Here is the input.
Amino acid sequence: MKNGILKASFLVFFLSFAFTASAQSSGDSSNYLLYGLIAIAALILIAVILQVSDNLLRIEAKQLGADKSGESFSLFPSFSKMFTPAAPDYVGEEPVHRFTKGHDILLEGAAEGAIEDAEVNTFAIQPKNFIGMSPIPKVTVEVGDNVKAGDILFFDKKRPEVKYAAPVSGEVIAVNRAEKRSIAEVVILKDKDMQYRSIESFDLANGSREELVNYLLEGGAWPLIRQRPYNVVADPSETPVNIFVSTFDSAPLAPNLNLVVEGQEAAFQKGLDVLNQLTGGAVYLGLDARTGNEPAAAFRNASGVEKQWFNGPHPSGNVGIQIHHTMPVDAQMKAWTVDVQGVITIGKLLLEGKYDASRVVVIAGAEFVEPKYVRTYQGANIGDLVKDNTKADSKVRLVSGDLLSGKQKSAEQYLDFFDDQLSSIEEGDYYEMFGWLVPIAPRPSISNTFPNFLYPDYKFTPDTNTHGEKRAFVVTGQYESVLPMDIYPQQLMKSILVNDFERMEGLGIYELVEEDVALCEFVCTSKQPLQAILREGLDAMQDQG
Here is the structure.
C-alpha cells in the first residue's frame, strides 16, 4: 500500500516536471516526446492502482475466509489458466486443479490384467496400524475361539465405542505381542467357507445421524474413516466440516482404482450416501483429469457429491493434496477421509447387512515374477500372497503399501489395515565407489546430474540404496519443487526438530500426513527421515491439544 502511494507521488512529480519542460520547448519532436512520457506515466499509474486494488481484494478474501473454498480471488487471470491445455471431454464443467509441482516415478513391474483370487490362509488385524491407539487394547477373543467375519476382536480402552472387527471367519490362532507386551496382531486361520455375522439393516432415509454412527460402530466399519488433521480414526462424537474421497492413486505402481470399483458400483454409491449423512458439509470426490486416465463411470456419475478434478504428477492423487486445494483443514476445521475400498465396505454393510472386508490388492514391483491384481481380505498374510512369485536370484525387500510411504515387511507378517498394495524392491546393500562421478545405470532422480529429462517414459529398476549418508539439513528448495501445497516443508521440519509449536502450527502442520511428504523425503539431498519427523510433530501437537 505504501509502495503504491510512493509510486503515485513520484508520478505526480514526474508529470509536473514534464509540463514545465513542455512550456520551454517549441519543437514538434519535443511535444511528441512529452505526450509519450505522459502516456507511459498514466499507464504506470493505472497499473499501480490496479495492483493495490488486487492486493486489497486478496487481503479481504483472506480475512473473510472466502479463500479457503479454493477459489482464487484476483482482478487478473493467471497465466497458467490462460495457457493451459483444455481438459479432457469427460471432465465437463467441474473445476480442474492443475499442478506443475510433483514428480512421477516410473518403475518396472506394474501389474496389468484381470483380478485373480488369492489363496491366503491367515489374516491379522494389527492395533499399531491405528495411530494413537493404546499399545494394549482390550482383546475380546482368546486363542482357539471361532469367529465370524464382522465379529469384534478388540477395542481401544481410550475410546471403547470404536470396535475393530474380524476380516474373515475362522479360528483365532494367535494373539501376538511385541515390546512391553503391546498387542502386535490378532491372527485368524480362515475358514474354507466364509461366514458373516448377521447385522440388522439400517433405514438410511429415516434414521438419524446418531443412529447411523452407532450402526457403523457396532458393525465394525467405523475404523475405515480417518480424520484430518493427524490421520487418526475419526471421533464419532464430532461432525466433520467435509468428507473427502480420492478416486485415484498417483504413487509408484499404485493400483488402478477403476478395476477396484468394477462390479461394485451400487455399494460405492451407497457408501457415498452414508458419508453424506455423516457431515454437515459436502462429500468431495477427487477425480483424475490426467490425459489417458478416464475415471470409471461409477466415479464420474456418482451422485450427491462435489466433484473436483486434479491434473498433475504425483502426489496429485493424495487426498491431503486434494483437501488443501479444495477446503483446507486446521485445528478447528476437521475433515474426514475414506478410501475407495472403505466406501465400498460401508456401502455393503447397509446393502447386505454384513461386514465385507474383501480387498483388491496389487502385487507390483520388478522383483516379482508376475505382477498382478488379486482379490483377498484385509490383513492378508504376505508370504501367502507372494508364494513362488519372487525372483530367486535377488535379495527382495517387501513393502506393505507403495515404495515411498509403505512399511517394510517380512513374508511372515501381514498387510497393514489400510493398504491395498504390496510392493517389491531389490535390497541395495552395497557400497558405491565415487557415486555419480562414474558411469552408472539409470536411476530415478530429479537431479540434472542424471539426464532423465531426455527419456521421460523410461521405467527404472531401483534398489534400496540411498546413495549417500545423512548430511547437514541445508536449504535446497527441493521439497517445494515436488509438494504442490502453499507450505514451506523444510522450515516446518526444522520447527518440529526444535519443538516450536507456534511455528509448526503457522507453517501448516495440520494439513500434512506422512504420505504427503514422502516424495520430499525421496528427493532430499540431506537424507532426512521426513515422514518420521512429521509424525513426531503431529503427535506432539495432538498431545498439546
